[in-house]
Amino acid sequence: MYASVADLRAEGVSESQATDERLEALLQEAGDTIDHAAGWFFEPRERAYRLDGRGTASIEPPVPPIQLDLLAVGGAALSLDPDDLVIVGAPVQPGFAAPRITLRHGRFPRGQGNVELEGLFGYSEDDGTPEGRVPREIRRACMLMVMRWLLSLADGGSDNASQFWRVVGMRTVDQSVSFASPGPAGPYTGDPELDRILHRYRRPMGLGAA
Fold first, then answer.
1. CA nearest 27: which of 157, 115, 149?
2. What are the domain boundaries of the chain?
3. What is the pLDDT of residue 59?
4. With contact defined as beta carbons under 8 Å apart, do 186 and 192 qualify?
5. Most exposed among 48, 76, 122, 153, judged by the fewest C-beta atoms under 10 Å?
């Protein structure tokens, strides 16, 4: 999950509004929604992919590699030594545009699903560790999504519920709610603030795997 129950409690979500179990379920659902809208995920996950060789020195995996454990062509493993391979992956660095794996010597021969990748993948932010962290904006987006869902469920058809996407804060003593200024709706969730984040972190077109 991209945020925790403790994160939501710190934002003012009380146990009377949702149990820990309910918040965990909503956080998971929010994470799934973010993954679907962005086109990739934002935490380390073990994955295996098959890509098509295109007769070029580079391939573009569908998700940034964090740690590559296997690179094979036609069933034959290739060297993972930095002298033989350049990996542009995660934790992402300034100027990152798309993940890329490039052979220093040779090319990936043309073929359908002939390039195999195995390892740890995910779009993570540099924090000085090998795996990195969930980007701060993605973590915030996950929390906002859950808070706005809670308001919508609690208020039913009220005016607050119709503008749940504008919630920026919730407090439990007097049940006050703070709203952001309205803006144009976006294409992913209909929530302008969330959609701006998702658009910024959206997977580039053209990346894919078999």
1. 149
2. 5-41+134-200, 45-121
3. 96
4. yes
5. 76
